[in-house]
Amino acid sequence: MTTRKKNPIWAFFASVKLALFLLFILAATSIIGTVIQQNQPAAQYVKEYGEKTAHLFQTLELTDMYNSWWFLSLLGIFSLNLIVCSLERIPNVIRLVRKDNLTIKPERLAKMRIRKTLTLPLPLEQSVQRVADYLHGKGWKTTERQKDDGILLFAQRGAWTRFGVYIVHLSILVILIGAVIGSPTFARKVLHNEKFAFKGSIMIPESQETNFIYSFTNGKKIDLGFTVHCSYFTIDYYANGMPKTYLSKVTILENGKPVPLKDGSTVHDLKVNKPLTYKGITFYQSSYQPYSDFLTVLVNTKTHEKQSRIIAGGKQIKSKMQPISFGIINQEVRGEAVQRVKIWFSDDQADPAIFWVNNGQKAIIKRPAGEYELTVKQLYATGLQVTKDPGVWFVYIGCGMMLLGLFVAFFMSHRKIYAFIREEAGQTTLIFAGSAHKNKVGFEKVFSKLIDEFQKQMV
User: Fold this and answer.
1) pLDDT tens per residue, range 183-212
2) Predicted TM-score of the model (pTM)
3) Containing H/E element for 276?
4) How many helices, marked H, and strands, marked E, lie in the chain?
5) Which residue, 444, 239, 424, is CA-closest to 339?
6) The CATH number, out of the four listed (3.30.1330.60, 3.30.160.110, 3.40.630.30, 3.40.228.10), of the domain defined by the range 99-158+413-458
Protein backbone atom coordinates (compact mmCIF):
# COMPACT_ATOMS: atom_id res chain seq x y z
CA MET A 1 0.00 0.00 0.00
CA THR A 2 1.43 3.40 -0.98
CA THR A 3 0.72 6.71 0.73
CA ARG A 4 0.07 9.84 -1.28
CA LYS A 5 2.95 12.30 -1.11
CA LYS A 6 2.02 15.63 0.42
CA ASN A 7 2.31 18.90 -1.47
CA PRO A 8 5.71 20.33 -0.40
CA ILE A 9 4.29 23.85 0.01
CA TRP A 10 1.48 22.53 2.21
CA ALA A 11 3.98 20.45 4.20
CA PHE A 12 6.18 23.53 4.68
CA PHE A 13 3.37 25.65 6.13
CA ALA A 14 2.07 22.71 8.20
CA SER A 15 5.43 22.41 9.94
CA VAL A 16 5.58 22.95 13.69
CA LYS A 17 9.25 23.85 13.25
CA LEU A 18 8.20 26.79 11.07
CA ALA A 19 5.81 27.96 13.80
CA LEU A 20 8.57 27.83 16.42
CA PHE A 21 10.98 29.67 14.10
CA LEU A 22 8.42 32.42 13.41
CA LEU A 23 7.64 32.79 17.11
CA PHE A 24 11.37 33.19 17.81
CA ILE A 25 11.74 35.84 15.07
CA LEU A 26 8.66 37.73 16.27
CA ALA A 27 9.95 37.69 19.86
CA ALA A 28 13.42 38.85 18.79
CA THR A 29 12.11 41.70 16.64
CA SER A 30 9.72 42.74 19.41
CA ILE A 31 12.77 43.26 21.63
CA ILE A 32 14.12 45.66 18.99
CA GLY A 33 10.86 47.56 19.16
CA THR A 34 11.27 47.83 22.92
CA VAL A 35 14.89 49.02 22.79
CA ILE A 36 14.30 51.62 20.06
CA GLN A 37 11.71 54.17 21.13
CA GLN A 38 8.79 54.10 18.73
CA ASN A 39 7.08 56.97 16.91
CA GLN A 40 9.51 59.70 17.95
CA PRO A 41 10.28 62.77 15.78
CA ALA A 42 13.00 62.16 13.18
CA ALA A 43 15.24 64.76 14.83
CA GLN A 44 15.17 62.75 18.06
CA TYR A 45 16.68 59.69 16.34
CA VAL A 46 19.35 61.82 14.63
CA LYS A 47 20.28 63.36 17.97
CA GLU A 48 20.42 60.00 19.77
CA TYR A 49 21.92 57.68 17.13
CA GLY A 50 23.48 59.90 14.48
CA GLU A 51 22.31 60.75 10.98
CA LYS A 52 23.36 57.50 9.24
CA THR A 53 21.91 55.19 11.89
CA ALA A 54 18.72 57.25 12.05
CA HIS A 55 18.39 56.99 8.25
CA LEU A 56 18.85 53.20 8.50
CA PHE A 57 16.13 53.03 11.16
CA GLN A 58 13.76 54.99 8.93
CA THR A 59 14.55 52.80 5.90
CA LEU A 60 13.91 49.58 7.84
CA GLU A 61 10.88 51.18 9.53
CA LEU A 62 12.31 50.37 12.96
CA THR A 63 10.90 53.62 14.36
CA ASP A 64 7.36 52.30 13.80
CA MET A 65 8.24 48.64 13.79
CA TYR A 66 4.91 47.12 14.78
CA ASN A 67 3.26 48.79 11.79
CA SER A 68 6.11 48.09 9.35
CA TRP A 69 5.46 46.06 6.20
CA TRP A 70 7.96 43.35 7.19
CA PHE A 71 6.56 42.88 10.71
CA LEU A 72 3.02 42.66 9.35
CA SER A 73 4.32 40.18 6.75
CA LEU A 74 5.77 38.02 9.53
CA LEU A 75 2.39 38.07 11.25
CA GLY A 76 0.75 37.10 7.96
CA ILE A 77 3.09 34.13 7.43
CA PHE A 78 2.58 33.04 11.05
CA SER A 79 -1.19 33.26 10.56
CA LEU A 80 -0.98 31.13 7.42
CA ASN A 81 1.20 28.61 9.26
CA LEU A 82 -1.32 28.48 12.11
CA ILE A 83 -4.25 27.95 9.73
CA VAL A 84 -2.51 25.16 7.79
CA CYS A 85 -1.35 23.43 10.99
CA SER A 86 -4.91 23.48 12.31
CA LEU A 87 -6.43 22.24 9.05
CA GLU A 88 -3.83 19.46 8.96
CA ARG A 89 -4.76 18.14 12.40
CA ILE A 90 -8.45 18.94 12.88
CA PRO A 91 -9.70 16.03 10.70
CA ASN A 92 -8.03 13.56 13.08
CA VAL A 93 -9.70 15.25 16.05
CA ILE A 94 -13.08 15.13 14.31
CA ARG A 95 -12.59 11.41 13.68
CA LEU A 96 -11.82 10.87 17.37
CA VAL A 97 -14.90 12.82 18.45
CA ARG A 98 -17.22 11.06 15.99
CA LYS A 99 -15.67 7.64 16.53
CA ASP A 100 -18.02 4.69 17.15
CA ASN A 101 -16.79 3.75 20.62
CA LEU A 102 -19.13 0.75 20.84
CA THR A 103 -16.95 -1.21 18.40
CA ILE A 104 -14.39 -1.84 21.14
CA LYS A 105 -13.91 -5.49 22.06
CA PRO A 106 -14.86 -6.42 25.65
CA GLU A 107 -11.45 -8.09 26.07
CA ARG A 108 -9.78 -4.68 25.80
CA LEU A 109 -11.78 -3.32 28.72
CA ALA A 110 -10.20 -5.87 31.04
CA LYS A 111 -6.75 -4.55 30.03
CA MET A 112 -7.45 -0.83 30.55
CA ARG A 113 -5.63 0.82 33.46
CA ILE A 114 -8.75 2.46 34.90
CA ARG A 115 -11.23 -0.38 35.46
CA LYS A 116 -13.24 -2.22 38.09
CA THR A 117 -15.18 -5.52 38.04
CA LEU A 118 -18.41 -6.06 40.02
CA THR A 119 -21.02 -8.78 40.33
CA LEU A 120 -24.75 -8.25 40.72
CA PRO A 121 -27.39 -10.77 41.85
CA LEU A 122 -29.73 -9.53 39.10
CA PRO A 123 -30.76 -10.70 35.63
CA LEU A 124 -28.88 -9.25 32.67
CA GLU A 125 -31.60 -6.91 31.42
CA GLN A 126 -32.30 -5.56 34.90
CA SER A 127 -28.58 -4.99 35.51
CA VAL A 128 -28.24 -3.11 32.22
CA GLN A 129 -31.18 -0.87 33.17
CA ARG A 130 -29.72 -0.22 36.64
CA VAL A 131 -26.35 0.82 35.22
CA ALA A 132 -27.90 3.01 32.50
CA ASP A 133 -30.24 4.75 34.98
CA TYR A 134 -27.40 5.35 37.44
CA LEU A 135 -25.05 6.85 34.85
CA HIS A 136 -27.85 8.98 33.42
CA GLY A 137 -28.61 10.28 36.89
CA LYS A 138 -24.97 11.35 37.21
CA GLY A 139 -25.10 13.22 33.91
CA TRP A 140 -23.67 10.50 31.68
CA LYS A 141 -25.89 9.81 28.67
CA THR A 142 -25.44 6.17 27.61
CA THR A 143 -25.70 4.25 24.38
CA GLU A 144 -25.63 0.45 24.17
CA ARG A 145 -24.93 -2.38 21.79
CA GLN A 146 -25.47 -6.12 21.92
CA LYS A 147 -22.26 -8.16 21.88
CA ASP A 148 -21.81 -11.92 21.47
CA ASP A 149 -21.77 -12.64 25.18
CA GLY A 150 -23.25 -9.52 26.74
CA ILE A 151 -24.26 -5.88 26.39
CA LEU A 152 -21.85 -2.93 26.14
CA LEU A 153 -22.80 0.50 27.48
CA PHE A 154 -20.86 3.64 26.60
CA ALA A 155 -21.02 7.22 27.88
CA GLN A 156 -18.77 10.22 27.38
CA ARG A 157 -18.33 13.81 28.45
CA GLY A 158 -16.37 16.71 27.04
CA ALA A 159 -15.69 15.36 23.57
CA TRP A 160 -15.65 18.97 22.34
CA THR A 161 -12.77 19.81 24.71
CA ARG A 162 -10.41 18.23 22.19
CA PHE A 163 -10.95 21.43 20.19
CA GLY A 164 -9.62 23.61 23.04
CA VAL A 165 -6.23 24.10 21.42
CA TYR A 166 -7.92 25.12 18.17
CA ILE A 167 -9.97 27.72 20.03
CA VAL A 168 -6.60 29.14 21.10
CA HIS A 169 -5.40 29.03 17.48
CA LEU A 170 -8.55 30.83 16.33
CA SER A 171 -8.18 33.43 19.09
CA ILE A 172 -4.64 34.22 17.94
CA LEU A 173 -5.92 34.73 14.39
CA VAL A 174 -8.70 37.03 15.64
CA ILE A 175 -6.15 39.06 17.65
CA LEU A 176 -3.85 39.30 14.62
CA ILE A 177 -6.77 40.38 12.42
CA GLY A 178 -7.55 43.09 14.97
CA ALA A 179 -3.92 44.20 15.02
CA VAL A 180 -3.82 44.45 11.22
CA ILE A 181 -7.17 46.27 10.98
CA GLY A 182 -5.96 48.78 13.59
CA SER A 183 -2.61 49.30 11.88
CA PRO A 184 -2.02 52.74 10.30
CA THR A 185 0.16 51.00 7.70
CA PHE A 186 -2.79 48.82 6.63
CA ALA A 187 -5.03 51.90 6.45
CA ARG A 188 -2.49 53.91 4.47
CA LYS A 189 -1.01 51.33 2.09
CA VAL A 190 -3.86 48.86 1.60
CA LEU A 191 -7.05 50.87 2.12
CA HIS A 192 -5.48 54.18 1.02
CA ASN A 193 -7.47 55.87 3.77
CA GLU A 194 -5.39 57.38 6.56
CA LYS A 195 -8.50 58.24 8.56
CA PHE A 196 -9.47 54.56 8.93
CA ALA A 197 -6.76 53.90 11.54
CA PHE A 198 -4.06 56.24 12.81
CA LYS A 199 -1.77 57.26 15.63
CA GLY A 200 -0.66 60.82 16.16
CA SER A 201 -0.34 63.72 18.56
CA ILE A 202 -1.15 67.38 19.00
CA MET A 203 -0.25 70.23 21.36
CA ILE A 204 -3.24 72.41 22.28
CA PRO A 205 -2.56 75.64 24.21
CA GLU A 206 -4.98 76.53 26.99
CA SER A 207 -8.05 78.39 25.70
CA GLN A 208 -7.28 77.13 22.17
CA GLU A 209 -8.76 74.38 20.01
CA THR A 210 -7.90 72.14 17.05
CA ASN A 211 -9.67 69.95 14.52
CA PHE A 212 -6.60 68.02 13.34
CA ILE A 213 -3.59 66.09 14.60
CA TYR A 214 -0.18 65.19 13.20
CA SER A 215 0.42 61.57 12.17
CA PHE A 216 3.24 59.67 13.87
CA THR A 217 3.94 57.88 10.59
CA ASN A 218 4.61 60.75 8.20
CA GLY A 219 3.91 63.94 10.14
CA LYS A 220 0.95 64.83 7.92
CA LYS A 221 -2.18 66.48 9.23
CA ILE A 222 -5.16 64.20 9.84
CA ASP A 223 -8.56 65.87 10.06
CA LEU A 224 -10.58 64.70 13.06
CA GLY A 225 -14.00 65.68 11.75
CA PHE A 226 -14.74 67.60 14.95
CA THR A 227 -13.01 70.12 17.23
CA VAL A 228 -11.22 69.61 20.55
CA HIS A 229 -11.06 72.63 22.86
CA CYS A 230 -8.71 72.84 25.87
CA SER A 231 -10.11 75.27 28.41
CA TYR A 232 -7.71 74.57 31.27
CA PHE A 233 -4.52 72.72 32.19
CA THR A 234 -3.04 72.18 35.62
CA ILE A 235 -0.05 70.31 36.97
CA ASP A 236 0.98 69.18 40.45
CA TYR A 237 4.58 68.74 41.51
CA TYR A 238 6.49 66.70 44.06
CA ALA A 239 8.53 68.54 46.69
CA ASN A 240 11.66 68.19 44.52
CA GLY A 241 9.96 69.95 41.60
CA MET A 242 9.28 66.84 39.50
CA PRO A 243 5.82 66.63 37.85
CA LYS A 244 3.38 64.51 39.83
CA THR A 245 0.08 64.62 37.96
CA TYR A 246 -1.35 66.76 35.23
CA LEU A 247 -4.87 67.29 34.00
CA SER A 248 -6.54 68.90 31.00
CA LYS A 249 -10.14 70.03 30.77
CA VAL A 250 -11.27 69.43 27.21
CA THR A 251 -14.54 69.84 25.33
CA ILE A 252 -15.64 68.20 22.09
CA LEU A 253 -17.29 70.63 19.67
CA GLU A 254 -19.49 69.72 16.71
CA ASN A 255 -20.37 72.69 14.48
CA GLY A 256 -19.19 74.98 17.25
CA LYS A 257 -21.49 73.45 19.88
CA PRO A 258 -20.30 71.40 22.91
CA VAL A 259 -21.12 67.69 22.73
CA PRO A 260 -22.42 66.09 25.97
CA LEU A 261 -20.49 63.03 27.13
CA LYS A 262 -21.89 59.83 28.65
CA ASP A 263 -22.31 61.45 32.08
CA GLY A 264 -24.13 64.42 30.53
CA SER A 265 -21.31 66.92 31.07
CA THR A 266 -19.59 68.74 28.21
CA VAL A 267 -16.19 69.10 29.92
CA HIS A 268 -13.98 66.03 30.35
CA ASP A 269 -11.14 65.78 32.86
CA LEU A 270 -8.38 64.22 30.79
CA LYS A 271 -5.74 62.51 32.95
CA VAL A 272 -2.84 60.14 32.26
CA ASN A 273 -4.93 57.06 33.12
CA LYS A 274 -8.29 58.53 32.15
CA PRO A 275 -8.54 58.91 28.35
CA LEU A 276 -11.43 60.31 26.35
CA THR A 277 -12.98 58.41 23.44
CA TYR A 278 -15.27 60.03 20.88
CA LYS A 279 -16.35 58.54 17.55
CA GLY A 280 -13.79 55.75 17.91
CA ILE A 281 -10.93 58.23 18.43
CA THR A 282 -9.17 58.08 21.81
CA PHE A 283 -7.28 60.99 23.38
CA TYR A 284 -4.58 60.25 25.96
CA GLN A 285 -2.91 62.81 28.21
CA SER A 286 0.75 62.29 27.35
CA SER A 287 2.76 65.49 27.83
CA TYR A 288 2.66 69.25 28.32
CA GLN A 289 4.60 72.37 27.41
CA PRO A 290 4.91 75.46 29.65
CA TYR A 291 4.65 78.91 28.07
CA SER A 292 6.15 82.23 29.14
CA ASP A 293 2.72 83.88 28.92
CA PHE A 294 0.18 84.17 31.72
CA LEU A 295 -3.58 84.20 31.85
CA THR A 296 -4.85 87.00 34.11
CA VAL A 297 -8.40 87.38 35.37
CA LEU A 298 -9.30 90.71 37.02
CA VAL A 299 -12.64 91.11 38.84
CA ASN A 300 -14.15 94.21 40.42
CA THR A 301 -15.71 92.76 43.59
CA LYS A 302 -18.26 95.59 43.79
CA THR A 303 -19.55 95.72 40.21
CA HIS A 304 -18.52 92.12 39.37
CA GLU A 305 -17.05 93.39 36.13
CA LYS A 306 -14.60 90.78 34.83
CA GLN A 307 -11.73 90.89 32.35
CA SER A 308 -9.46 88.10 31.11
CA ARG A 309 -6.18 88.93 29.37
CA ILE A 310 -3.05 87.06 28.35
CA ILE A 311 0.20 88.87 29.08
CA ALA A 312 3.88 88.01 28.90
CA GLY A 313 6.30 88.21 31.81
CA GLY A 314 7.93 91.64 32.11
CA LYS A 315 5.08 93.30 30.22
CA GLN A 316 2.44 95.80 31.32
CA ILE A 317 -1.12 96.11 30.03
CA LYS A 318 -3.93 98.61 30.40
CA SER A 319 -7.21 97.19 31.60
CA LYS A 320 -10.61 98.04 30.15
CA MET A 321 -11.47 98.95 33.73
CA GLN A 322 -9.99 102.41 33.35
CA PRO A 323 -7.64 103.69 34.66
CA ILE A 324 -6.24 100.35 35.86
CA SER A 325 -2.97 98.98 34.49
CA PHE A 326 -0.85 96.11 35.77
CA GLY A 327 2.01 93.86 34.79
CA ILE A 328 4.36 91.06 35.85
CA ILE A 329 7.73 92.39 36.97
CA ASN A 330 9.32 89.23 38.39
CA GLN A 331 8.90 85.46 38.58
CA GLU A 332 9.96 82.72 40.99
CA VAL A 333 10.66 79.54 39.05
CA ARG A 334 11.33 75.95 40.12
CA GLY A 335 12.46 73.77 37.24
CA GLU A 336 10.21 74.72 34.35
CA ALA A 337 7.24 75.75 36.48
CA VAL A 338 6.52 79.25 37.76
CA GLN A 339 5.77 79.12 41.49
CA ARG A 340 4.70 82.74 41.95
CA VAL A 341 4.86 86.10 40.20
CA LYS A 342 5.44 89.67 41.36
CA ILE A 343 2.67 92.05 40.27
CA TRP A 344 2.73 95.81 39.72
CA PHE A 345 -0.80 97.25 39.95
CA SER A 346 -1.91 100.86 39.47
CA ASP A 347 -5.28 102.61 39.31
CA ASP A 348 -3.94 106.18 39.56
CA GLN A 349 -5.15 106.20 43.14
CA ALA A 350 -2.21 106.58 45.53
CA ASP A 351 1.01 104.65 44.94
CA PRO A 352 1.01 101.48 42.79
CA ALA A 353 0.64 98.19 44.66
CA ILE A 354 3.49 95.70 44.38
CA PHE A 355 2.92 92.18 45.69
CA TRP A 356 3.55 88.46 45.08
CA VAL A 357 0.79 86.03 44.07
CA ASN A 358 1.11 82.26 43.79
CA ASN A 359 0.67 80.76 40.34
CA GLY A 360 -2.99 79.92 39.75
CA GLN A 361 -4.20 81.51 43.00
CA LYS A 362 -6.21 84.61 43.74
CA ALA A 363 -4.94 87.89 45.24
CA ILE A 364 -7.18 90.52 46.88
CA ILE A 365 -6.19 94.10 46.01
CA LYS A 366 -7.68 96.83 48.18
CA ARG A 367 -7.52 100.30 46.64
CA PRO A 368 -9.08 103.64 47.61
CA ALA A 369 -11.55 103.39 44.72
CA GLY A 370 -12.56 99.79 45.37
CA GLU A 371 -11.52 96.15 45.82
CA TYR A 372 -10.31 93.79 43.11
CA GLU A 373 -9.50 90.12 42.72
CA LEU A 374 -6.60 89.17 40.47
CA THR A 375 -5.74 85.62 39.40
CA VAL A 376 -2.53 84.95 37.50
CA LYS A 377 -1.85 81.52 35.97
CA GLN A 378 1.04 80.34 33.83
CA LEU A 379 -0.21 79.11 30.46
CA TYR A 380 0.49 75.58 29.23
CA ALA A 381 -0.14 73.57 26.12
CA THR A 382 -1.49 70.09 26.72
CA GLY A 383 0.14 67.27 24.76
CA LEU A 384 -2.34 64.64 23.60
CA GLN A 385 -1.63 61.30 21.96
CA VAL A 386 -4.48 60.43 19.63
CA THR A 387 -5.33 57.01 18.23
CA LYS A 388 -8.04 55.44 16.16
CA ASP A 389 -7.97 51.65 16.34
CA PRO A 390 -11.01 50.01 14.69
CA GLY A 391 -9.47 46.59 15.38
CA VAL A 392 -9.45 46.92 19.15
CA TRP A 393 -12.71 44.97 19.60
CA PHE A 394 -11.26 42.09 17.60
CA VAL A 395 -8.35 42.08 20.05
CA TYR A 396 -10.69 42.08 23.07
CA ILE A 397 -12.81 39.26 21.61
CA GLY A 398 -9.67 37.31 20.70
CA CYS A 399 -8.30 37.65 24.22
CA GLY A 400 -11.59 36.37 25.65
CA MET A 401 -11.50 33.42 23.25
CA MET A 402 -7.90 32.72 24.22
CA LEU A 403 -8.76 32.59 27.92
CA LEU A 404 -11.62 30.20 27.16
CA GLY A 405 -9.43 28.04 24.92
CA LEU A 406 -6.59 27.88 27.44
CA PHE A 407 -9.01 26.93 30.22
CA VAL A 408 -10.49 24.15 28.08
CA ALA A 409 -7.07 22.95 26.89
CA PHE A 410 -5.50 22.78 30.36
CA PHE A 411 -8.36 22.06 32.77
CA MET A 412 -10.94 20.03 30.82
CA SER A 413 -10.71 16.65 29.12
CA HIS A 414 -12.57 14.15 26.98
CA ARG A 415 -13.71 11.42 29.40
CA LYS A 416 -15.16 8.03 28.48
CA ILE A 417 -16.85 5.31 30.54
CA TYR A 418 -17.57 1.76 29.37
CA ALA A 419 -19.69 -0.85 31.12
CA PHE A 420 -19.74 -4.41 29.78
CA ILE A 421 -22.46 -6.57 31.35
CA ARG A 422 -22.79 -10.34 30.94
CA GLU A 423 -24.36 -13.31 32.72
CA GLU A 424 -22.05 -15.93 34.23
CA ALA A 425 -23.01 -18.88 36.42
CA GLY A 426 -26.36 -17.44 37.47
CA GLN A 427 -25.12 -13.96 38.24
CA THR A 428 -24.30 -10.79 36.31
CA THR A 429 -20.73 -9.57 35.92
CA LEU A 430 -20.00 -5.88 35.27
CA ILE A 431 -16.72 -4.61 33.91
CA PHE A 432 -16.44 -0.84 34.30
CA ALA A 433 -13.58 0.89 32.45
CA GLY A 434 -12.72 4.48 31.68
CA SER A 435 -10.24 6.77 29.97
CA ALA A 436 -9.40 10.46 29.60
CA HIS A 437 -7.08 12.10 27.11
CA LYS A 438 -5.77 14.51 29.80
CA ASN A 439 -5.59 14.70 33.58
CA LYS A 440 -5.82 10.94 33.92
CA VAL A 441 -5.13 11.04 37.67
CA GLY A 442 -8.05 13.39 38.26
CA PHE A 443 -10.36 11.28 36.14
CA GLU A 444 -9.32 8.12 37.99
CA LYS A 445 -10.55 9.70 41.24
CA VAL A 446 -13.86 10.65 39.62
CA PHE A 447 -14.20 7.15 38.19
CA SER A 448 -13.50 5.43 41.53
CA LYS A 449 -16.01 7.65 43.35
CA LEU A 450 -18.64 6.98 40.68
CA ILE A 451 -18.26 3.18 40.90
CA ASP A 452 -18.09 3.18 44.72
CA GLU A 453 -21.40 5.06 44.91
CA PHE A 454 -22.95 2.60 42.47
CA GLN A 455 -21.82 -0.31 44.65
CA LYS A 456 -23.40 1.27 47.73
CA GLN A 457 -26.71 1.65 45.90
CA MET A 458 -26.64 -2.01 44.91
CA VAL A 459 -26.19 -3.23 48.50
Assistant:
1) 888 888 888 898 999 999 999 999 899 999
2) 0.76
3) strand 276-278
4) 11, 20
5) 239
6) 3.30.160.110
